[in-house]
Each structure stands twice: as C-alpha cells, then as structure tokens.
Amino acid sequence: MAKKVKYFYNSHTLKYEKVELSVKKKVLRVLGYLATVTVFSVVAVTIAYNVIDSPKEKKLKRDISQLNMQYDILKKRIKQMDMVVSDLQERDNNIYRTVFESEPITSDEWQTTFAGINRYKALESANFGALMIETTRKLDELAKKMYIQSKSYDYLAKEVKNKDKLLASVPAIQPVSNKDLTRMASGYGYRIHPIYKTRKFHAGMDFTSPTGTPIYATGDGVVITAGQERGYGNEVKINHGYGYQTLYGHMSKIAVRVGNRVKRGEVIGYVGSTGASTGPHCHYEVHKNGQPVNPINFYFNDLSPAEYEKMLELSSRNNQSFD
C-alpha cells in the first residue's frame, strides 16, 4: 500500500503544495512517540508489580504462611508444656513439700528471666529473627523451670527415705482400677448438678464403673465412717493422719467397719449408685486439714507424667457430675 501523501494550500503561491517535514520535526515526533510508549510501559509495569505477584513472590508467601502455621502449633505446644510444669510446681509447693514439712520454693527461685545477658543477639540478623528470638526465649524459660523442678524432686527423693510411715498414709492411688483412664467421668470444681441442673461446686472426682467393682483405700488409715449417709448413700471415710482424710461415696456394699485399720490398696467397698446419684460410680474426695483439695494431685503412685497430663485434661472438662 502506497504511503499517503499530504498537501497544504499555499496562500502566497495560490497552489496546493506537498507537505514536507523537516528533520527536526521528524526527530521530535519520534521522540514524542517513544516518550509516550515509555511512560505507558512504566505505568503498566508499576501496576503489575504492585498488584500481580510473581511466581517467586507467590512461593515466598506460601512459605511464610506455612512458617506462621507451624509457629502457631509450636506456641500452643510450648504453652501446654508450660501448664504441665506449672502444675507440677503447684503440687511440689503445696503438697509434696507440705507432706515432708519442707520450705516451699520461693518466687525468686522460680524466676526464669535472664537479665543482663543478651543471649539472642546472634538471632537478630537472621531471617524471621523476631519469631526465633521469642520461641528460643520461651524454650529457655521452660528448660530452666524443668531444671529447677528436677532438682526439687532430687531433694524430695532424699526426704522420702525418712518418711516411710507418712508416705504409706498419704492417699496416693486412684480409688478404682483405671489403668486406661477411661473411668474418670467428672473432675474437681464447679460442674452442672445432674439432678438440679445448676452449677455447683464438686468437691471430688467421679469414677464410673460397673456395679460391684472393688473400691480401694488410697492410703493407710483408720475407718471413721462406714454406713448410710445423706447425699453420698453408702459412704466410707478414712482418717490417714497427718491432716489427711478421704471419702468414698455411693457404694453398693461396704466391706469395712468403723475402727478398722486399712492399708493402701485394701478393698473397702464396691461401686454402686446409692444416695443422690444418676448412675454407678465412685465419688472420691481428699481433705487436707479439713478442707477439700483436688484429688488429681495425689495419684503419684498410679500415673506416669504422660498419663497425669491426660488425666489433668480429662478432669478439667466442664461437664456434668454424677452426684
């Protein structure tokens, strides 16, 4: 196709003349075109860069998302472990050391900060430095707590040798056979009452078992109650000395009498549903110096650390009690 020729009317010569562009105008026209294209390209690239992710950016975002998810899982696990260690500290100070008449570990001794030492400076320049520093600090704190607790147990192990009679008396097992931890139905604390359907303080733990399942004394002691009582039906109470008493309720049959001396693990009765009960179970309480305490802290002859953690989770559920 032939190039289109342009003409203009020359008023001086009174003729139509062919339009001829000078070199300068041609250069300016080309430069203007190039400038327009350049500006448009820059705008397009800028928009694409800020709105549309490149394959590399998409991969980085996926990696960061995965990292954050794993970090959240790790934080939850560390929190769970810290709760278990904190509970061990509580048991150590308020039960074990009380039993052995030892001074509790002070808050200063439990202090887990590392003041004056910049232990994490090397992590500051690393990728995800803030996350790494926070996680490392929490693990350091947890490790120190576990070390202090370990040393405390070493101390208590020495005390055990001279406290044989006391240790035999302290309630230290579950009142029914519960090796797979499936019989723990309701824990200590506020629960929904099965009959009145209101929140009521549940001063013990309920263990569901078939009627006739043996119930065991959880420590050496003397039977002080053995008979029909209001609320807990057929009930046995044992005085273990050293400020400890235990209660076993809703028995179908009682196997001991008031004044009997019993040993830990001896059968004192059988599971039933007498009294204010909605099904066969053993209601079990531990009292220290006349006040109910959480029985879960006294199964140290029965449970491994992993089993204790599982029992702690089961007993913490805010469910309905059986009495």
UniProtKB/TrEMBL annotation:
Keywords: Coiled coil, Membrane, Transmembrane, Transmembrane helix. The keyword DNA-binding does not apply. InterPro entries: Cell_wall_metabolism_enzyme, Dup_hybrid_motif, M23ase_b-sheet_dom. Residues 57-91 form a coiled coil. GO terms for molecular function: metalloendopeptidase activity. The keyword Transmembrane applies. Residues 200-295 form the M23ase beta-sheet core domain. The chain crosses the membrane at residues 30-52. It comes from the Bacteria. PANTHER family: LIPOPROTEIN NLPD, PEPTIDASE-RELATED. This is Metalloendopeptidase-like membrane protein. It comes from Solitalea canadensis (strain ATCC 29591 / DSM 3403 / JCM 21819 / LMG 8368 / NBRC 15130 / NCIMB 12057 / USAM 9D) (Flexibacter canadensis).
